[in-house]
Amino acid sequence: MKGDFWRGKLWGVNLSGNLRVGPWCVKLPTRSKRIGLPECLVVTSPLGTFAVFAVVLPAFTAMYRFLLISCVCLTVCLITLPGSVTSSKLLIILLDGFRWDYFDREGLTGYQNFLRMGTRAEYLKNSFPTISYPNYYTIMTGLYSEDHGFIDNKMYDPKHKTEFLLGFNREQYDSYWWDDGDPLWITAKRQNKSSYFYFWPGCEVTIKELKPDYCRMYTEVPSMKDFKDSIKQGMVNFVNNSADLVGIYFELTDKMGHNYGPNSPQLESVLRETSEIIDRLLVQLKEHHLENEVNVILTSDHGMSQITPNRYIDLNPVLKVQDTHHLYGSVFLSIWPKEGKTNQVYNALKNYHPNLTVYLKHDIPERWRLKHHYRVPPIIAVADIGWYVITPPGKRYPTVDGQPIGGYHGYDNEETDMRGIFTGVGPDFRKNAVVPWLNAVDIYQFMCDLLNIEPSPNDGDSTVTRLMRPKPAPLPQPPPPVTFPDEQTESITSLFFVLRVQIPSADSDLTDDYIGEKLFEINTSGLLNN
């Protein structure tokens, strides 16, 4: 039975409600037709059910009207108690640079506990380029880079003649950088859901005249203490019902991977400490009685690959500064040649090194879903996995504390090392389950579903995320008949309540993954004889 059946069509009265558990069906005996009533009256909310009885019951005696209204009111009260069918709250934690296989390393008890309690995708296929800002926005909007417009951490906008630079340049807060997508906090805000974000890049920006209810702005790499405090405050926000959505960004996993490499002891130390924090998070959910109210998602924006100083490509001999007006990148390169120089620059680069692939804009592979945005430059170049590109003027292989850096990302998103993570725990996730790999664009609409809000247009698909949801419980058996001693109630036999959950097929036209159907059946044979 579809959720819109009979909606707004009951004797011209709009009985639609906001609860997701509709429709409600009141069944009457065949003899009800004698007085012009249908066999089944269907409405879409508890209040609608009450309205049905308000219309139907004048045909009955006062005693039965009182009896039936009492039963309906009692059931409605039970349905609306805490723990009823309502949308869950959501905590999303983005662990920057957390590669798909980090979970499997020894000694990470907290992460292993999280996986046992929830559902894990085999891996997350992040959008190309596998760089932070493009994937921050892909995760939050469900759009590919060519649709939301973030093509790199550093970009040139030819329409506005401005640059977006990772860091704190004033121009990055201009809304035109962000307006091509609806991030989750904006979608939630429009539908009266409150959101709190901690260190999440972009949460401080006014997008389409809206902001989250709270944003702790990113000003420096969040410390481990910042991470703990953000989780603690998020729990408080859930307990006092000030937040429906909490987002927390954590960067040290990426920083240690860059500085020392994905196999370094420095990264291992961060992984162990964050694992302990996640373990504590699971305990906090129980302590605050939130384990049946809050879904928790762990995800990442990209993976990390080992690099070494003997695998680099130096463009200084072949690429002249005077031939370009903007040049960004070290693995994924955005090249803006000066007017009339595009072919010259392309020809100089295209066969320069066997581990560097160079594309004119119109030749960029469609599978990357990148080429159709106006911020994509006339030329891009992509290094093979494990290689690093040195660009003019006079740049060198980067170091940290006098030592060469050990990790990088930005490579082809088909590369295994570029895979990220997606896993979730909570009332709307299966336990100890693994599903196939997931596209980063699929996350946004799934989070909207968890929050019971309508997503904005996006590039995502729900084929895999549907598999993460718990299977519906079997229909409960009705209780035994209720009888009354009064001879006037000779054949009132039963009043029972059934909750049925149905998963629509993939080609269903229903927008909700779940449709709750509540059925009241009243056997009233003999009732109309009075």
TrEMBL record:
InterPro entries: Alkaline_phosphatase_core_sf (IPR017850), Phosphodiest/P_Trfase (IPR002591). Keywords: Cell membrane, Disulfide bond, Glycoprotein, GPI-anchor, Hydrolase, Lipid degradation, Lipid metabolism, Lipoprotein, Membrane, Metal-binding, Phosphoprotein, Signal, Transmembrane, Transmembrane helix, Zinc. The chain crosses the membrane at residues 40-60, 66-95. It is a lipid-anchor; GPI-anchor. GO terms for molecular function: glycerophosphocholine cholinephosphodiesterase activity; metal ion binding. It comes from the Eukaryota. It is an enzyme of class 3 (hydrolase). Its EC number is 3.1.4.38. It catalyses: a 1-acyl-sn-glycero-3-phosphocholine + H2O = a 1-acyl-sn-glycerol + phosphocholine + H(+); 1-tetradecanoyl-sn-glycero-3-phosphocholine + H2O = 1-tetradecanoyl-sn-glycerol + phosphocholine + H(+); a 1-O-alkyl-sn-glycero-3-phosphocholine + H2O = a 1-O-alkyl-sn-glycerol + phosphocholine + H(+); 1-hexadecanoyl-sn-glycero-3-phosphocholine + H2O = 1-hexadecanoyl-sn-glycerol + phosphocholine + H(+). Belongs to the nucleotide pyrophosphatase/phosphodiesterase family. This is glycerophosphocholine cholinephosphodiesterase.
